[in-house]
Amino acid sequence: MINIAKEDHIANEYPDGTGKQALLRIRNLCRTYIMGEVRVPALQNVSFDIGREDPEFVAIMGKSGSGKSTLLHQLGLLDTPTSGEIIIGGENVLKMSEAQKARFRLERFGYVFQEYALLPELTALENVYLPAMALGRKKKECFKAAREVLGQVGLGERLDHRPREMSGGEQQRVAIARALINKPDILFADEPAANLDSVSSKQVLELFRKLNREMGLTILMVTHEPEDRNYVDRVIWLKDGELEQHMEMLK
Amino acid sequence: MLSDHKLALFLAQKSIIKGNKGTLGLTIFIMSLVFVNSVFVSSLFLGLTNTINDQIINTVYGTVVIEPKKDEKFIDDVYSLKQKISRVPGVKGVSAQYIMGSVMSYKDKNGAWSVYSINPDDEVTVTTTHNFIIDGEYLSKLDENDILLGKEIAGGYGGDDESRSLGGVKTGDSIDVLFNNGVKRTYRVKGIFGVNFQRSDNIAYISQKEMTSVTGMEDKASQILIRTEDVGNEGQFIKQFLELGINEKIKPWQDYASMVKEITQSFDIISMLISGIGLFVAGVTIFIIIYMNTISKRRQIGISRAVGIKESVIINSYFIQALFIVMSGIIVGLLIVFYIVAPWFIAHPLDFPMGPVSLLILPENVFINAISLVIAASAAGLIPSMMAVRETIIESMWGD
Ligand SMILES: Nc1ncnc2c1ncn2[C@@H]1O[C@H](COP(=O)(O)OP(=O)(O)OP(=O)(O)O)[C@@H](O)[C@H]1O
Ligand SMILES: [Mg+2]
């Protein structure tokens, strides 16, 4: 275990002397929800690095209510921490404006949520090419890229179907394709397989592992399935909002 | 920037196509009604004032009027003055009138009216009264014992104030006229006219020749009416008349239309009020529709933002939807106005004391109504969409 407590407030240095910089570095991250009089400390002083060497596939695990989703939302810039630092690719992302964060999410992050989170008015293809379109890419290019990523996730047809006309597994693969279209650095997934049957669930995890190995995609995945550990490089355990066991190297 | 607009347009288009068609149709219909309503009201009022103006010009004053010099009762040297005026290019007609008060009596009825003397050949070049003979004939130059009565004087032709009339004089009847200078004559009624403008239908006409014998004066007039080409450029003509060295008072017809000015002001207020209420209704409708839309798509808005779609793009997509609804409403409204409402009112003008009133649809008026509706509706659409992106992404996606 590395004692990271000594490395407070370090952004762009290479403290371990390896000359390698972590893709994602968080320091003393806290998120306290305030509900009227009640303060819920969902995350407390969480610090770790991801992607110091090769692109990693990391699982975030812990009991229900331990703060897994909260952590993922902070890292994915969907929420703002109460205190702490998040440095991605050397950039202090918490200093960015909302518009800059939106751009950052669009260009460098991909998201997959438990409930698929597709836009019901759009077809599968449109859902996928939307983020590409938002980047200002040409329509033709967007279509081409969308078909490509849909192929990668194993969906070659039924592309003009709307989400409600597709199975859960198919919808989730559309969501993964959408997450991939802008070639992100990091993919965030919050229990992506929780609503799927075991076959679809396996497909998703294998796809993730393949994307990590072959495309060099860093993946942070919240899960509560113990057997999912078979697919990942390491597990970050949370307990009551704190890092319980910094690293569990699996491979 | 352009790609942001494209994206907003794309999202708006999908939302409209995949949205509830019934709600959309109804909203567009409401917009069209609001538009038709405000165009109708303002066009009706414009039509009303237009009718009054037309009546004043066509049946009473022409476009420019020459009055006696200050402190004088009559215009002198009328003949040469008329000659001068008619030579000005653009002058279509000149008619001198001598006006005298009188008491007319028929059977047991009598009343006070003004008698206008005219040269009918001149008068027809200025006013259109000769086109509104409802009984008998118009005067001619050589008539001596003949009088032409407005229907309000004659009575029995559906005037506005029958009780003050002579109670049913017909063509061929004789009436007694006692002029203000004490001269008393008996005239045969040659004809009766009705222009449906109370002010004009209370006039009696005799020939200039006859008036000369009543007054014993020649070449004098109480006023000279001038009809110029087109209405609206009276000022230019007045300038030319002044340059001719005419010393009499020269007035444009508008000076006699102070009543119209007051009415126009009241109409403007009423029509602004009605349009204002319409705009408010349109605004509230759009607000509710877009608000409901953002509420039901709260999660989708959250998802879009999470993926990295800018807030401005999302706001813009709702703005475009509001714009689409109001524009469609205006297009439907224009069709209703120009293919249903306007043709109907042109075929069936409304009867008013000032004459038949139809809609006067001015392009600039339609345009102003359209623009106000667009502004009201798009502002109303902007508010809920801005509200929708104010909450956090987490709240939008998972909040209750
Ligand atoms: N928006 C919120 N407002 C207040 N408290 C919250 C909010 N979101 C989460 N919490 C609280 O923060 C703590 C951590 O929640 P979080 O959703 O991160 O847990 P989790 O590990 O993802 O749980 P699960 O496995 O059930 O998804 C919980 O106690 C939860 O009740
Ligand atoms: Mg969770």
From TrEMBL, chain A:
The keyword ATP-binding applies. InterPro entries: AAA+_ATPase, ABC_transporter-like_ATP-bd, ABC_transporter-like_CS, ABC_transpr_LolD-like, MacB-like_ATP-bd, P-loop_NTPase. One of its GO terms (molecular function) is ATP hydrolysis activity. Keywords: ATP-binding, Nucleotide-binding, Transport. CDD domains: ABC_MJ0796_LolCDE_FtsE. Residues 24-250 form the ABC transporter domain. The keyword Disulfide bond does not apply. GO terms for cellular component: membrane protein complex; plasma membrane. Pfam families: ABC_tran. This is ABC transporter, ATP-binding protein. It comes from Candidatus Methanoperedens nitratireducens.
TrEMBL record, chain B:
Residues 26-240 form the MacB-like periplasmic core domain. The chain crosses the membrane at residues 24-48, 269-292, 313-346, 366-389. GO terms for cellular component: plasma membrane protein complex. The keyword Repeat does not apply. Pfam families: FtsX, MacB_PCD. It comes from the Archaea. It is found in: Cell membrane. It is a multi-pass membrane protein. Residues 273-391 form the ABC3 transporter permease C-terminal domain. One of its GO terms (biological process) is lipoprotein localization to outer membrane. Keywords: Cell membrane, Membrane, Transmembrane, Transmembrane helix. The keyword Membrane applies. This is ABC transporter, permease protein. It comes from Candidatus Methanoperedens nitratireducens.
